[in-house]
Fold:
Amino acid sequence: MDKILSHIRERQSEIKLLIRQFVECESPSDDREAVNRFVELVADMVSPLARVRTHPGGKFGRHLVCEFHLPGKRKSGQILALGHSDTVWPNGTLRSMPFREADGRLWGPGVLDMKSGVAFFIFAMKTLRDLEVPVASKVVMQLNADEEVGSESSRPLTEKNAAGSKAVLVLEPGTGLTGKLKTARKGVGSYTVRVRGRASHAGVDFEAGASAILELARQIDRIAGFTNLKRGLTVNPGVVSGGTRSNVVAAEASADVDIRVTRLKDAPALDRKFRALRPIDRRCAIEVAGGLNRPPMERSAGVVKMLRIAQSLGREMGLQVEESSTGGGSDGNFTAALGVPTLDGLGGVGEGAHAANESILTDRIADRTALLTKLVSAL
Ligand SMILES: [Zn+2]
Structure:
């Protein structure tokens, strides 16, 4: 059997223990102290293997950056492994969803998204040291504290560390129960469309009113028409509100709209369409705010090259490494948009991210850890 894989298989119980410790240290995005406790736990674990620094995350927890001490001479640039320490699960979730091992899986809040990915990467770095595998690259792991809430505070740090890197490995879960890697992610944005009309009494003075609701309803039909499925561009008016009472012609109405684009170059044209919205009833006014938050991770030649390397490393272990694309965003969107080849979905294999059945497959722990180990030495 493959030397790296068998070394890791023999130590699988250590990786499981690491995952357990991570899952049992709850870290919801909106609880800075809890996230910082998790960051400290990780920092303590990696400090014998790495130089550890943290960066303030404002109202969020601290962002962690670890530079690993690895065998061999550094001569070919930097690899950035990207993850996040926060989860979507509130404190106390462990009471109803305790960490457990059953049915060939590990279960618990954040086990898939993405505490197992963090554990895999740390163990991969340990393996490189144990087996004295030479690594030509400087290897940095960055864990952001605010990924689940938009990465506003970590984005500059992510972009700075990515800009100095030749490759980015994202430790998010793979796709589906085969753990396909992610080679493309849609860009994500949002708009708020606000209509101001003119209020009046619906019975006494109907014609004096200009209904913001009626105007918004007409605009929503236009906005929904911006969707272009062939180009992988979707526009979803997901929330609407407006009006005060049924007997008042509504003075205000607004819609929150989610947008997804496959290609970055589609975003400016879509933005122009939003900005060009004009009222059908001229007595109404339209105000548009928003834009693209995460640029798309496009399947560039550099991404495909990394995928091919991962596939050939997978074959060494008798493993078929497949790829997938997704409409969801990650911090890999930011790094890919800078033109840095980014391979995503290298973390746990399982299902139920953000859901009560969140779990990872136990029998995929070793090969995922081995793939990360091999990628870091091969890139
Ligand atoms: Zn995640």
The CA atoms of residues 239 and 256 lie 5 Å apart. The mean pLDDT is 97. Residues 84, 113-114, 147, 172 surround zinc ion (CB under 6 Å).
